[in-house]
């Protein structure tokens, strides 16, 4: 278990006149400014035997501060022994291949048996604390029914560095999706604003004048046909931004929603699929056919380029196989 520790910091001339929380964050990069503010308010930062409780106070060159860092608190979610497909792990982060059906974070309707519960159990004491709590740092999420590669941080330093990469859109993220019909042109880019749907709180929507900028590159990798018409397509989507439901919203905006996406596709099935095994497979597919196939980023401590790939899961492989079989049957 981690123990309480006290660190002594001397303010150098180069940081004299800066806000105290900012100066200390520069000198202690392993702690975020938010964490330092919390320590100040709890009386854990001392100068001249008195608590330095004002984060906005100006630091003075030569001042000496004693910063006491308590051991991280146990996380509110309890660790649970759930299976994890781990692609990479070190003292700072963990990369997993998330299966469809696994919720990332506890919430309404999903109080436990989530990815966070599994990570707390698996990582144990290697979680040195995010904001003073022994929990994994979730820097991005996948929807419950989206499978694929995810990264989580184990400490504040890694959490902050990874969050900055996501904010700067320097993370490489590529998804594979199976959509209704075939987008034209076969390769393109969708750039819109995405905002919460005003009539449906669980949906996002393309907006003309509000919301956040969202950019998705796409490339059709394979087209599946029936009766001479495009039935469905395997499409690779590259995220330039990372908005909620971005791929699902943008593909539906193009008129080609993901197979199995009840929220944005409304159970849409091509007429050419009527009475075929492909049509039945499209109707029966139980989730949005979306898989986070590639994740690339710089290691938050070493700066080394890391890249991870995940093959199509079995349910999407089976779907593609049936769509291909339908094509052959119609051509013979």
Characterization of this structure:
- It is a single chain.
- The protein is α+β, with helices and mostly antiparallel strands.
- Helices cover 22% and strands 31% of the residues.
- It contains seven helices and 17 strands.
- A hairpin with a 7-residue loop joins strand 12 (187-196) and strand 13.
- The chain is elongated.
- The termini are far apart.
Proportion of residues in extended strands: 25-35%
Compute the number of strand runs: 17
- Helical content stands at 10-25%
Q: Can you tell me the overall shape? A: elongated
Question: What are the main properties of this structure?
Answer:
17 strands; alpha+beta; disordered C terminus; 332 residues; elongated; four-stranded antiparallel beta sheet; eleven-stranded mixed beta sheet; 7 helices
